[in-house]
Automatic annotation (TrEMBL):
Entry similarity comment: Belongs to the transketolase family.
Any Pfam family hit: Transket_pyr
Keyword Metal-binding: no
Keywords assigned: Thiamine pyrophosphate
Cofactor dependency: thiamine diphosphate
Protein name in UniProt: Transketolase family protein
Start and end residues of each Transketolase-like pyrimidine-binding domain: 1-164
Biological processes annotated in GO: organic acid metabolic process; sulfur compound biosynthetic process
Cross-referenced SMART domains: Transket_pyr
Domain of life of the source: Archaea
């Protein structure tokens, strides 16, 4: 997922000079460093200052830029919640907040980095489109969609590698669910990395 995000940013940056990327001292982890190497004049590292990053992201967006701002999920939705809510979301700023290390997949980093509440927080913010891709293919398409669409986005990625669930024929549709397996006895809904786990559960139940 993270690699797909970084690579898609580079592709978008090559096509659109209006794209700028912000990070909070985590470009190696979020993979925004790939964009930084290719377009250093359009990459801004704010250090461990997530509040400042989202405030600046809002300003850049209101001045006409397409902004991608990245950090860990926990930091974007807790440390920087004031700026996220009151500056970015309320103003409908064209900022794509793409977070990584969501959920419990940050074991080595400890509890301070584990985000159990970020989805709940993001879903309460006004004007915000919230998406949790299931794999790298979907991640790339979601990032491309976010770049095309106006307004604020929250895209939730995880740290660990996830299995590929979709092929090159797949087309992401905002607000539409994808049916991966058919059945008659039970229906399971899942988002993000839990889609792969749901498919494993289906196999166990079928057995």
């Amino acid at each position: 997922m993270r690699d797909a995000y970084g690579e898609t940013l580079v592709a978008l940056g090559a096509k659109d000079k209006n794209v700028v990327v912000l990070d909070a001292d985590l470009s190696g982890s979020t993979k925004t460093g790939l964009f930084a190497k290719k377009f250093p004049d359009r990459f801004f590292n704010f250090g461990i200052a997530e509040q400042n990053m989202l405030g600046a992201a809002t300003g850049l967006a209101l001045s006409g830029k397409t902004v991608f701002a990245s950090t860990f999920a926990m930091f974007a939705t807790t440390r920087a919640l004031d700026q996220f809510r009151n500056a970015l979301a309320f103003s409908k700023a064209n900022v794509k907040v793409v977070v990584t290390h969501a959920g419990l997949m940050t074991g080595p980093d400890g509890a301070s980095h584990q985000s159990l509440e970020d989805l709940a927080v993001a879903r309460t913010l006004p004007n915000l489109t919230v998406i949790a891709p299931a794999d790298a293919v979907e991640t790339s398409q979601v990032i491309e969609l976010a770049a095309r669409e106006r307004g604020p986005f929250y895209v939730r990625l995880v740290r660990e590698k996830t299995p590929l669930l979709y092929d090159e024929k797949y087309r992401f549709k905002l607000g539409k669910a994808s049916v991966l397996q058919d059945g008659r006895d039970l229906m399971v809904f899942a988002i993000g990395p839990m889609v792969a786990e749901a498919l494993k559960a289906r196999g166990l139940l079928k057995a």
